[in-house]
Specification:
The structure is a homodimer.
Chain A: H1 7-10, H2 30-44, H3 47-50, E1 56-60, E2 63-72, E3 78-79, E4 82-83, H4 84-98, E5 101-113, H5 118-135, E6 138-147, E7 155-165, E8 180-184, H6 190-200, H7 216-224, E9 231-233, H8 239-251, E10 254-258, H9 266-275, E11 289-293, H10 297-305, E12 314-320, E13 326-329, E14 335-337
Parallel strand pairs in A: 5-6, 10-13
Antiparallel strand pairs in A: 1-2, 2-7, 3-4, 5-7, 8-11, 8-12, 9-11, 10-12, 13-14
Helix pairs in contact in A: 4-5
């Protein structure tokens, strides 16, 4: 297979912005990148946004803080392995952790649809509280709005978070270097397929549970052990392939992955095969990609594997000089360009 | 008129929580208070939430920060004097200012409905950018989600904000004291009636414009002048009456208002009268209530009046010992209890 020419990724993207918002604009793929690059970033231009990381790094007095936020619109609200409440806590905790921060405080905004069962709200709130306790974060401020029936979808949650950055490392895509190893802390694609199964009422051979989990402890252990972390990123919407495309573009380097080294649960792999999904583009909610010097990869993998959330950690690729793109090496010696999708295989996955 | 017995406000509220979420749960009235007290505060119990202010006060290293958030679901998106974009910036800036903080950084979450015109999004984003510039805040991190047509309503915005508290005063409802004067920086009810007019296609005698505006400069001037501010609060959802009820309950003190001293634009007053709204319960987006010692009231009013956003500032009431309730003294010597409404006169006003 011939690789497409590199200008496709270097030049302004050739898509024209459609006149109306499409579902695909929320998918973490190319349309979303266009929306950010054409509309949002130019309007709000500042160096914090230009860093294009999972959160902003703010220096306030003698402290360095991380500040991040996410809205959660996952449908359905409950699925095997998690729910919108735990996701809304873990998701923002993870974004802070990806900045190398210790998560401390969260804000919570609820947008409720008229008619939502109070019992559902209580279940979600209880799940948020339990998740916050697990992460040692406090939900310190919040807001509740209600919209008319038919103007929402049960329940949307927005969380913003503040974390404390104690490492001197500046973790982010700009720090990625040629020769870096790319690690992941376990199997890909479970969250997306668990939500898909719940949404469509599908039963697969093995049970598939979302990997929804907080990653701050893993990050803390890597930092405490002194690894020179260049970049951390949780491959949520758009999966591993989309997130690596973003990082390749920001670092202006080529990423090469070995398909055979990418951990995947057989049940998730077969569900993806049956339904025609590429697991490299399926969302994760408890995984992170770690960029660090190749010389430290083995020790970092040992560190990850000593934690329950990193037992199946693996090195999946390396960073090379070359056009900013992501190349997948298949077992039979062929290669495939992992491009940004125009949208998302599974809307409203998070 | 006989005042209702005080136990109604002191005891657990007699309403039973309905089985489903009602529009009124979002209204800033009694149902919303019940939802917060019964469901949200117990689940997330911590001293920051217990302070029940517009934002949390966080000590981090040698800094004291304010952290606040709000979702914006106002309908329609554009109205005389503002739009959802400027509201989403000014609203969170104001919540930070009410903590006595200098607003610094905002996060932005957009929940877009499939089919939203891109031109509308661009107009809202431009308005946010302009509002942020006016306030000297940076939008440093964000998130965009898209939901299917019919599962949202064009555009919802969530902003969270971080501000720096440099005053040694701990501003909040717990600091309100017997003998405090209650000031307001101008006329009430304009925002609610402007949105109402836009929503229903009404034209009133005079043009009614929302008062949507950032209050951080006014707060900064009061702090710089050295006034002993006990509490600041912007009377948004539920208006002046609802917000004063909350403060009376938190401070465990009685609030007395003089109707004749409450500034109101004649066009707003007559629109309220025609439509049967009580302007004391109508939302404001550029007003604040200021609690400070009576001896400082005149000087503080002079300070407020020297700023364009405080030209019509007035003292509207005082804090007294007594049951935690809000009493309105009418010009003819009668009094009226301003209770919490069960819901909100105007849903989706902010």
């Amino acid at each position: 297979m011939t690789d497409p020419p590199a200008f496709e990724l270097n030049c302004p993207l050739p898509f024209e912005q459609p006149e109306r918002v499409l579902l695909a604009h929320g998918g973490g793929g190319r349309l979303m990148q266009n929306l950010l690059q054409d509309t949002l970033f130019p309007a709000f231009a500042n160096p914090f946004l230009a860093a294009a990381h999972d959160g902003a790094r703010l220096v306030l007095g003698n402290q360095v803080l991380a500040f991040s936020c996410d809205s959660y619109v996952v449908h359905p609200l409950f699925f095997a392995g998690g729910d919108i409440g735990s996701m809304a806590v873990f998701g923002t905790v993870n974004d802070l952790a990806m900045c190398g921060a210790k998560p401390l405080y969260l804000s919570v905004g609820l947008i409720l649809e008229e008619g939502l069962e109070m019992a559902v709200l209580q279940r979600v709130v209880a799940s948020m509280a339990e998740a916050a306790k697990r992460c040692g974060v406090l939900l310190v401020t919040g807001d509740t709005k209600v919209v008319e029936k038919g103007k929402g979808d049960g329940l949307f949650i927005h969380t913003a978070g503040i974390g404390l950055i104690e490492t001197a490392l500046e973790i982010g895509p700009q720090q990625v270097k040629v020769g870096d190893a790319i690690l992941i802390n376990g199997e890909i694609g479970a969250h997306g397929m668990a939500v898909m199964a719940e949404r469509e009422g599908l039963a697969f051979e093995g049970p598939i549970k979302s990997d929804c989990a907080p990653l701050h402890e893993l990050v803390s252990e890597l930092l405490t052990a002194g690894f020179e972390l260049h970049c951390l990123r949780d491959p949520t919407r758009g999966g591993v392939a989309s997130v690596l495309n973003e990082i390749a573009a920001q670092a202006e380097l080529q990423i090469e992955l070995k398909a055979a080294q990418i951990p995947i649960d057989p049940a998730v792999a077969s569900a993806c095969e049956i339904l025609g999904f590429d697991p490299l583009y399926v969302a994760n909610e408890g995984k992170m990609l770690i960029f660090l010097p190749q010389a430290q990869a083995e020790a970092a993998l040992a560190c990850l594997r000593s934690h329950p959330l990193g037992r199946n950690a693996a090195q999946i690729g390396v960073v090379q000089t070359g056009a900013p793109r992501v190349i997948l090496h298949n077992p039979y010696g062929t290669t495939r360009l992992l491009d940004l999708l125009s949208g998302e295989q599974l809307p409203r996955i998070c």
